[in-house]
Amino acid sequence: MKELAIILLNYNNVEDTLECVESIEKNCESDYTIIVVDNNSTNDSKDILIKNKKRYKLILNPVNEGFAQGNNVGIKWAIDNNFKYIMLLNNDTLIEKGSIELLLNEMNSNPNIGIIGPRIMYYPEKNKIWFDGGEIDWFKFIVNHNNIGKKISTQNSDKIKENVSFLTGCCMLINRNLIEQIGYLPEEYFMYYEDVDYCVMVKDAGYNLINLKESIIYHKVSSSSGGEDSAFSIKWGTRNRIIFMNKYKYKVDKTRYIASVLFFYSTRIIKLIKYIFKKDKERYSAIIEGIKEGKKYIEGVRYD
């Protein structure tokens, strides 16, 4: 059995993808294969990726149906080709030397680990934490990044590893046995919340999610989606939170769920008012579209 498949999903961002490939080539000494899935790019990404295809397995996805679907194409190829571990890695990341080996060693030492992920720093602010493990807030139905924005030494930590309730899809090392047991990434979200949903599935199956803080990578945050406050992010974040809340409402009692829904819509109203005063039609429309699409989706879906 081959050891590690590293999946990079590309959409119109070939420069970052090739920089990530180079980072892996320079800093990973494990037995690995890089799988680049191009998610039907509309620029010259495909041509450039084809020219460099000796460096990786290239899969040209004929459609773009989102983050989960594109990664699932790569995951299926990795499983069909008998890889033991599968890593999802954002194409806008860079790894430190030895970071992947640390994750693999920890995964091998504990069969109850379903997914393991590193500490993730901002790039180029390499001393500033973006992700240090996360927890799901079952009142707001969101995730909180631990220690986000803190500037602490990447060499020292009070905790070497931590069992958490959320690991970001920015970097996940997954045991193939887990995928064969619980299935692939949920594809109903297009982008955002698929990793949250998958982490719930992993925990419900009885596995641990481990954040290994001595393993370090760097993330050019949201370079593929225009930024955390872009209209794109607002729309999909709004839509998918509605879907996630509906899917996992059984996690809380009925009264608390009603309070959660009221809280969500009251905060959307506040944001809408803010965008009206700022005459920000794009972000205003993004919230409205997200709500409409989220409600439309859940009207046609029932989760048992």
SSE order and pairing:
Blueprint: E1 2-10, H1 14-27, E2 32-38, H2 45-51, E3 57-60, H3 67-80, E4 83-89, E5 93-95, H4 99-109, E6 113-122, E7 129-131, E8 134-137, E9 142-145, E10 161-164, E11 171-175, H5 176-182, H6 194-204, E12 208-219, H7 231-247, H8 254-277, H9 281-299
Parallel strand pairs: 1-2, 1-4, 2-3, 6-12
Antiparallel strand pairs: 4-11, 5-12, 6-7, 6-11, 8-9, 10-12
Could you please describe the fold and organization of this structure?
With 304 residues, the protein is of the alpha/beta class. It has two domains: 2-219, Alpha-Beta Complex (Spore Coat Polysaccharide Biosynthesis Protein SpsA, Chain A); 231-299. It has nine helices and twelve strands. The chain has helices at 14-27, 45-51, 67-80, 99-109, 176-182, 194-204, 231-247, 254-277, 281-299, and strands at 2-10, 32-38, 57-60, 83-89, 93-95, 113-122, 129-131, 134-137, 142-145, 161-164, 171-175, 208-219. Strands 1, 2, 3, 4, 5, 6, 7, 10, 11 and 12 form a ten-stranded mixed beta sheet that branches. The model has no long low-confidence stretch (mean pLDDT 94).
